[in-house]
Amino acid sequence: MFVAIPPRQKPSLPWAMPTLFVALWGCFVVTTLLPDAERQQLVMQWGALSGDLRSWPAVVEAVRDGHLARLVTALFLHADWAHVVGNLLFLLIFGVPAERAMGPWRFLTLFLVGGAVANLATVLVIGTPDRLIIGASGAVSALIGAYLALFPTARLGLVVPLGLFLQFVRMPAAVLIGLWAGLQLVYTFVGPAFGAVAWSAHLAGFAFGGAFALLSRNAIKRRMKRAPGV
Predict the structure, then answer these.
(1) Average pLDDT over residues 21-28
(2) 128-156 residue pLDDT tens
(3) DSSP line for 110-167
(4) Angstrom distance (rounded) from CA 109 to CA 104
(5) For 70-103, what is each residue's pLDDT tens digit?
(6) How far apart are CA 69 and CA 162, in angstroms?
(7) Residue 111: partners with Cβ closer than 8 Å, 6 or more residues away
(8) 148: closest CA among 188, 109, 103, 181?
(9) What do you get for the CA distance between the two ends of the chain, in Å?
């Protein structure tokens, strides 16, 4: 007689995506509760600005005085409700399966570094100096690019409200990614002034995420084989 013995190791609960979700939402709520003058000062102090980092001496100086950290802190600042809700929605859709596949630390690295790279691309692309660059769109783009690279034919389950009922449907991930791209394109034209050139951040983040996933694909496969319930 053969008896199946369940593994002692239990799948760990995801914590990186919920932490980022709460941090992004919490920062937005706090900034909206501030008076307009204080909110503007905080955003200008912690958001990224165009025209910086265009020369090697400027980069060295930014490292010395901590100014380079704005590329990361800008991820947690958003312009309005539509901006933050759109990012949180797709973070929720793609963040849970991405963290399950990658693990929390690789997931956090992808989000923070991918977002910083996306903001850096925007800083370098915008020709007008001192234009404000905020939002986690570049980081979310990195997650989406990584997910598409790892699971190109995946299908995701969604709960769709149909009148008084909720219907569970499964949709190809590529369709949701196309929807996300459409929303970002719309926001490019109807968003605030800096939105007119924000598409470069999305493209840079998406490309970084895809490259990150491909380079770490073997390590992710080994992790998925080892981890039960993944």
Answers:
(1) 95
(2) 777 888 889 889 999 988 888 888 777 76
(3) HHHHHHHHHHHHHHHH--STT-EE--SHHHHHHHHHHHHHH-TT-EEEEEEEETTEEE
(4) 9
(5) 899 999 999 888 889 888 988 988 888 888 888 8
(6) 44
(7) 16, 20, 75, 139, 142, 143
(8) 181
(9) 29
